[in-house]
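A note from the maintainers: we've had questions about how concatenated examples are separated. There is no special marker in the raw files; a new sequence line simply starts the next protein. For clarity in this README we add a label.
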Amino acid sequence: MRKYLPLLVCLLAAPAAASVKCESQNLNGHASKICVNSGQFSHDYYTLIVDNTVIFTLPDDYVEDIVLSHRVPEDAAVEFPATGTASAGAVVKITGGCLPVSEKQSLGGKMIGVEIARTCSFQWGAVDVLKDVRLTFE
């Protein structure tokens, strides 16, 4: 059941979902996945999963340039494995995003830019956890 939790979260994050597409990558000792949930209201929702833990779900308008910050607490705390051995008080950041890839297509005799994919890369601290993963739209 636990291994299906990330997919379940993807499905529930946008109730009007039409389809979910995921791409996975093993990099620097971490198993990461980026999923896109295409909804009927023309916004897509992106979910980043690292080491079988959902990190975030965000709409397409806010997934291009991400900075998430966490200050490691002084007391005993449960930390994500990717946080590593950061000392108490240190700020650990997850940075990156999913950038649109467009191409010119003809529509009604005019050439317009159409988003055909997103290329996603994320770092957890100084470690790449997802690098140049491409989600292609059909």
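[label: protein 2]
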Amino acid sequence: MRKSTINQIAPLNYDEVFELNELYADKKIIASHREHLSRILKDKNPSEIDKHVSNLIIKDNSFNLIMQNIEKNFEFNLDKEEINAIVSNIKSSSLNKKNDANEKTISDDKIEMLAKNIIKRDLIFEKLSKLWDIYVTDTEVKNYLNGYYKSTNQPIRELLNNKEKFEKIRASIFNEKIIRELLLRFKVKLNLNKKNNDEPKFN
């Protein structure tokens, strides 16, 4: 059971417009996007895949900008044990592994900040799901898995029969629904006309 808590201290302003001036991206996440899209969009050529990746980078940056701005409407009480558990997961994940000898692992301070942001995001998502009446039914999860099977021909029986894996799929669909609703409800204005601002800066 989650010990961290959230409290809304101000109403959300859906009329506010957030301006996106620069794009930021992580090389590992870009590689992950490209690998995933290449697997599910087998009929697309590399330039089309790159266009999809660019759209995902803009989507990710727009989402991050919205979250940074609406976070001020909430106050948080973050549980230390919960933070430590997520820090441990990040340190053992592929996000913190080097692809080559020249690549640095993420610093401990940055990992802790990332862990706190993950908890805050989840708390905000839970609050918004109640506010906007967003949830994911078993049928939605099964339909998603059936679609995944049809597009990839990968077996899904284990995902259907393993409760933990089934719930992870539900959580992924839930997060995507909240993100989609955030991008619909809040306005982001792209202003990438300055030199090199349309090229992502790598974290």
